[in-house]
Every structure is written in C-alpha cells, then in structure tokens.
Design a protein that fits this description.
Layout lengths: L9 H27 L2 E2 L3 E4 L6 E4 L15 E8 L8 E2 L15 H24 L2 E6 L4 E5 L1 E2 L6 H24 L4 H24 L7 H28 L7 H21 L5 H26 L4 H31 L12 H14 L3 H30 L5 H31 L7 H10 L4 H16 L3 E6 L10 E3 L4 E5 L5 E6 L1 H4 L5 H53 L6 H19 L3 E2 H18 L3 E6 L7 E2 L1 H22 L3 E9 L2 E8 L15 H10 L3 E6 L5 E8 L9
Parallel strand pairs: 14-16
Antiparallel strand pairs: 1-8, 2-3, 3-4, 4-5, 4-6, 6-7, 9-12, 10-11, 11-12, 13-15, 16-17, 17-19, 18-19
Length: 740
C-alpha cells in the first residue's frame, strides 16, 4: 500500500494506529509465550565466574548474582533421575552466559548452542514424561528436582525491563511517525522504533531466560536480532540524514545505504563469513560513526535556524545520554567488578533516547526545551564529572570507594557547581529580557499616548524592537473570532504575538535577538507584563482626557453663551461708532477658539472650505486680488481639533499681516496635503518684510511658535511676486511640544 509523504488524513491515521497497537499486542504475547515455553527447575542459573559449573539463585531476585557467596548453590551436572553418572550432562559455564553475543570466538558460540540443545532436550523430555531430574552439587552429591512449566512470576524484571524498553520506543516512534508522516525524519523514526521492538523482544527472551533457549530459537534468534539491530542502526542514520533538514544527496545515500543493509541482512542469514565482527559488529561501529558524523553535519547545516537548531540539540543530547548510560554501566562494572549487573537494565537508555527523539522530531514545545537547554547540559555535565571522577580515583589511584566518592563530591561541589551557577546567572541575564530594565521606555510609551493613538503605537513598536530585537516584525489584523488577542508564542517558538495599541491589530515578532533565539514563555511573560502596564496607562490617560474634554466643553459652552452673546450685541449696535468690525473679528476668533476647545475633529474638506471662505472674503474685502490654490485632501482625512485650530490661527495671522502691512494689491494662498503633512503658503506683491525681519508688529513669532508646537517647520522670505512669503509645513500626526 502506497502512503503519501504528506500527513495522513485522520481516518487513515486511526486505522494505521489501530493496526500498530494490534501488532504490538500480538508480538508481546508471542514473546511471552516463547519465554514461558522454557522448562523450569524453580531456579535461575548464571555462569560461575570462578570456575566450572553454574550458580543457582531464586528467579525473584531483580539482579543477577556475581559470586559464589551470593548463590543458593553451585551445580556441576544434570541427568535424569536414577540415570548413571555416564549419562550426566556436564554443565560448562558458558551454557548460561547472559547473551550469546558476548562470546567472541566462534567455537565458544558453537559450544553454547550444542549445550543449550542438549540441556533443553533433557529437561523438555522429562517435563513431557512427568519425570524428575537430578543436579550434581559442588560437593559431588546429587539433588532431585521436579521439572515444571515456567510461571509468570519467574519471568522477573530481567525479562520485562528490555521488553518494556522495546514497547516504549515502538509506541513513541510509531505515534510520531503516524502524526507527522510528511516528515522524513518521523518516518525513519517509526522504522527504527519497529526494529527496536523486534530486537529488544529477542533480547528480553535471551537475557530474561532461566538459562535455556528453545532450540529453534537459539540460533535463529541471534540471526534475527542481528538483522533487526542493523536495520535499526540504518534507520537512525537515515533519520540524521534527513532531519532536521535533508542533507545534500540524501535520496542517493538513502538508496545506497538501503542496498548495503539488504546485503548485510542476507550475509547474516546465511552466516557468511564466519566472523561475526565482519558481518555484524563492524557495521554497527560504522553506523555509530556515521551517526555522529551526520549529527555534526546537521548541526553545522542548521546553525542559522533556531527551530532546527533546537531540534538538533535535543536529538544530539538524547543520543549522548542514551550512549553514556551504557558506557557508565560498563565502566562501573569494570572498575568495581560488578559483573552480575545484567545488560537488561542498560537498555533503559533506549526509551530515554526515544523520548528525546519524540520531542525533537515531533516538535513538541521546542521553545520550552530551548529555554532549558543550557541548565540541563550543565546538570548532566556535573553528574558526568562526579561519575568519571569517582571511577578515576578508584581505578587509577586505588582510592577506597567511599573515600573516592567523598573526594569527588567535595571537589565538584567547590569548583564546578559555583562556576555553573555563575554561568547560569550570566546566561539568564543576557538571554532573558527583564522587565525592570525597560520601565523608563515603557513610561515613555505611555506618555506618547498624550499625542494620540498613532504616537502611542509607534512608541510601543519601538519598545518591542528594543526588548526583543526580532528578526522581523509585522502588524496584522486581529485573528478572526479572537475577541481578545493576547500575548502568545506561535509556530513552535518562531513567532510572538503581541497586541497593538487600539486592539484591532496585533504585532507578530519573528525570532528574537535578530534570529538567534526562539521565543519562550519568558519572552511571553515580559511582553504580557509590558502590554498590561501600557494598556492600563493608556486607559488612565483616556479617562483623564475625557475629564479634560468635558471641562473644555463646559468652558466653551460658557464662552459661547455668555461672551458670544455680548460680542454679537456689539456687532449689531456698533455700526454707529465703528466698532462693528472689531466686534465681528473678535466674535470669529471666539468661535474658532470654542470650536478648538470643544475637541471635535474636523474633516479636511470642511476645514479647507472654511479657510477659503474666511480668507478669500477678508482679502477681497480689503481690496486684494486673490489666487486660491488648494489640493484636494486624501479621502477620509480628518484633522484633530488642535491641528485645525492652530493652523487656522496661522492662516488668519498671515492674512492679517498681508492686509495690514504689505501695501500690495495681490495675494496668493496655497494649501496642499502631501507626504503626511499639510503645507500652507501665503504670498503677496507688497513691500515685503524690510525693516521687520525680527517679526516686530507682524505676528511672526506667534506663527513660528505655533508651527514648532505642532512639530512642523516654518519659513519667512521673499515671494516670487515681489513681496513677503510665509510658509508652514505641519505633520498631520506629529506634535513636538505641548501647547501653552
């Protein structure tokens, strides 16, 4: 059945998962049934490391014995009950060796299989016939024993541990493979997981036996475990070849190595050549070296991608931990002479390896693992130094074991752990943003809200850039259906989502520290704290501004109702004494001030129409020929109350200067909206600004002050028409100084 390289649909995945679990159950039952077929004498036997024969002990013990003092008895031979001594089977110690693979010489391996078959035939026949057997003890006496079926209790930890160490990788690897089938690394992990289950189920039968293997299984099982081990090693190498990213010519190397694997499987099946080293062990060494080389190559190939780098780190760390556990067990056994420690327990390294592989290939919370990477490495290094230091003192300097561990702990405690804490503190302060360091910037962002929402948004953007130094930063619409888009880590730590000022958009920050780091919960925590403080500060500002606006409305209403009524009366009755014009001008000024105080924004089209009506009317009333040039404003442009009021006063003051001081006959007024700013220019053909450069009597300081307060620029000079020129350029959303 062909399976697409894309991720499986849910229905197909469920069927494959059910089939995998069914296969697992059937395989475990098969393994248990093979182990249970062994005839039992009620004891477990191991080789006597001090001479010929076997050492017997209770099957309930969780650890194999390693000396005669730990044994219940020593057995030298086996025979049917009542049979003569000549028919007794002498028990060579290698018949109970823990695993046939431990026998390096072919003649020893052949002898192992011969003795296994003879002992099995004797005990199995006696069991079938209901007969008893006798074992010869160390003192030469014979002891009668009943032969019975092996019980579940006699399987013991020596059987269940390696089997469980095969089941866990199978469940993990197949699960990751099915749920991430589109990833080549996940597929090879699934293959390696199946091979691990097959190999470790054979290991559990061999290392967990009482002392015998079924004749059909003894040699066939060795061939089977060699082939599955080679396949697992190949799958691991292919995993590293394709993950986190396929290396150069990965497809070619996959096909070539697959052909080599097939050839090695055939050679092990036909058992040629005779040397196990040439057809099996040598290639495991080659696979291990290749695995290390591919891991290093992947590390260099993905050092610029934080996600792949994090996956590669955990992949490498898992392998280092798994391999080092086996190495430590071997060194401890070698140094302390604890040869009875079963290899069954060394296989716990396999589940540890697969847990790391699951995290790495499955991409489960890599951003959290990135956070703990350095502490875990330093912790593991400390444990390694203690183990190696203790072993070195015992093996090389012949220091007493108790003294050795004490010296090691003292030295490591005084030297390594202080250095570790110092390094962790340095890395924590350099890699994790601290809220306290950015409080002044946060206060500045809150104060920017006085200049409007846009200014607050720009200050918030600048603050995020300073704190996290993202590789990229984009403003997007708030996710649909997300009523309150809060701070969140997205895309396996690649992105950090942060709300934007106004609530309608969010910022997406990509890769912290210029692309060198994934985002973690620490980043999210700091961003959330800053956003909450900013949002609270802006909310307080809005409340304060609302109160100020209400007070302005009250004052504006009083001015309009009281002062406005009086000025209107003066306009109506002032014609006789000539004060009507001054009263009307004061009334217009008051109305403009009231409009500004009311705090209502004005559409640019409306403001432009008001300016034209007022300015052209005044100039024509004073006898000027007026040229009005106005550019249509962008659609939907709205002027803030403050900008409209101050710009109106600039235009009014400039026109007043033309009327009062120019002595000319023509005036040109230009208003343009371009580049996020409004440009206003008033020119005349009069006498210019000679004798009043400082602005005395012309109101120029007031124009200059208003332009500066609005964050704009101003210019006074000679017009092309021959007279004076006044020009201001005001940004539509910027304010440099507060208005007095």
């Amino acid at each position: 059945m062909m399976v697409s390289v894309t991720d499986m649909p849910g229905g197909r995945r469920a069927r494959w998962l059910a089939a995998s679990l069914l296969f697992l159950a059937c395989w475990v039952l098969l393994s248990v049934s093979i182990a249970m077929s062994e005839p039992s004498l009620g004891q477990r036997f191991v080789s006597d490391p001090q001479g010929e024969g076997l050492l017997a002990y209770s099957p309930s013990r969780a650890v194999k014995i390693s000396s005669r003092n730990d044994a219940d008895e020593r057995v030298l031979a086996l025979r049917l009950a009542g049979a003569p001594d000549a028919q007794a089977l002498r028990l060579d110690s290698l018949v109970a060796v823990e695993a046939p693979s431990m026998l390096s010489r072919q003649e020893d391996l052949d002898r192992f299989f011969v003795l296994q078959k003879q002992a099995w035939a004797l005990l199995d026949g006696a069991r079938d016939r209901g007969e008893a057997v006798e074992v010869q003890l160390a003192d030469g006496s014979w002891s009668r024993r009943e032969v019975r079926n092996r019980s579940l209790a006699e399987l013991g930890w020596l059987y269940w541990v390696p089997l469980l160490c095969g089941v866990i990788p199978f469940v993990v690897g197949v699960g990751v493979g099915l749920y991430r089938w589109g990833n080549a690394g996940a597929r090879f992990l699934a293959v390696a997981s199946v091979m691990a289950l097959l190999a470790l189920s054979e290991v559990s039968i061999v290392t967990g036996r009482l002392w015998l293997l079924p004749p059909w299984f003894a040699e066939a099982g060795q061939t089977f475990v060699r082939c599955t081990s080679l396949a697992a090693a190949w799958a691991f190498c292919m995993l590293m070849l394709h993950y986190p990213t396929p290396l150069r010519r990965a497809a070619m190397w996959t096909r070539a190595s697959g052909a080599l694997l097939a050839a090695l499987v055939v050679l092990n099946i036909v058992q040629w050549p005779d040397s196990q080293a040439l057809r099996y062990k040598l290639w495991l060494v080659v696979a291990t070296a290749s695995l290390v080389a591919l891991a290093l190559r992947q590390g260099f190939a993905n050092r610029s991608d934080p996600v792949h780098r994090a996956a590669g780190r955990w992949l490498g760390a898992s392998m280092v931990v798994a391999v080092s556990i086996v190495m430590y067990a071997f060194l401890v056994s070698l140094v302390y002479g604890a040869q009875g420690i079963s290899t069954s327990y060394r296989w716990v390294s396999v589940p540890l390896l697969y847990v790391g592989l699951m995290v790495s290939v499955g991409r489960a919370n890599l951003f959290e693992l990135e956070r703990w990477w350095v502490p875990l490495v330093l912790w593991y290094l400390g444990g390694t130094l203690i183990v190696l230091g203790d072993l070195a003192l015992v093996a090389l300097l012949r220091v007493d074991a108790g003294a050795a561990i004490a010296v090691t702990l003292i030295v490591i405690g005084w030297l390594y752990f202080p250095a570790r804490q110092w390094l962790l503190a340095r890395l924590r302060t350099s890699a994790r943003p601290e809220m306290q360091a950015f409080v002044p910037d946060l206060i500045g962002a809150v104060n920017a809200g006085l200049q409007g929402e846009r200014a607050a948004g720009r200050a918030w953007q600048s603050l995020l850039e300073r704190v996290f130094a993202p590789q990229a930063m984009a403003s997007v619409e708030r996710p649909a259906g997300d009523a309150v888009a809060g701070v969140a880590v997205l895309d396996e730590g690649r992105q950090l989502q942060v709300p934007d000022v106004g609530g309608q958009r969010v910022w997406l920050l990509t890769l912290a520290q210029g692309g060198r780091q994934l985002f973690t919960k620490d980043h999210a925590r700091v961003a959330d704290q800053m956003w909450r403080l900013l949002d609270h500060g802006l909310a307080q500002q809005r409340q304060t501004q609302h109160a100020v606006d209400e007070e302005r409305l009250r004052i504006a209403s009083d001015l309009h109702d009281d002062l406005g009524a009086r000025l209107l009366t003066m306009v109506q009755v002032g014609a006789a004494d000539g004060t009507s014009g001054l009263a009307r001008q004061a009334l217009d000024e008051m109305r403009q001030s009231v409009r500004g105080m009311a705090g209502k924004p004005v559409a640019a089209e409306v403001a432009l129409a008001d300016w034209r009506s007022e300015l052209v009317t005044r100039l024509q009333g004073a006898g000027f020929d007026v040229e009005w040039h106005a550019q249509d404003p962008p659609a939907g442009l709205v002027l803030t109350p403050r900008l409209h009021l101050q710009l109106s006063k600039v235009l009014r003051e400039s026109v007043s200067n033309v009327i009062r001081h120019s002595g000319g006959a023509r005036c040109k007024v230009v208003v343009e909206f371009a580049g996020g700013a409004v440009l206003a220019r008033i020119e005349d053909d009069g006498r210019g600004m000679a004798g009043a450069a400082g602005g005395a009597g012309l109101g120029l300081p007031g124009i200059e002050r208003r332009a500066r307060q609005l964050g704009g620029k101003h210019g006074f000079g000679v017009s092309d028409m021959g007279g004076a020129r006044v020009e201001v350029r005001i940004p539509l959303d910027g304010v440099a100084e507060p208005v007095a």
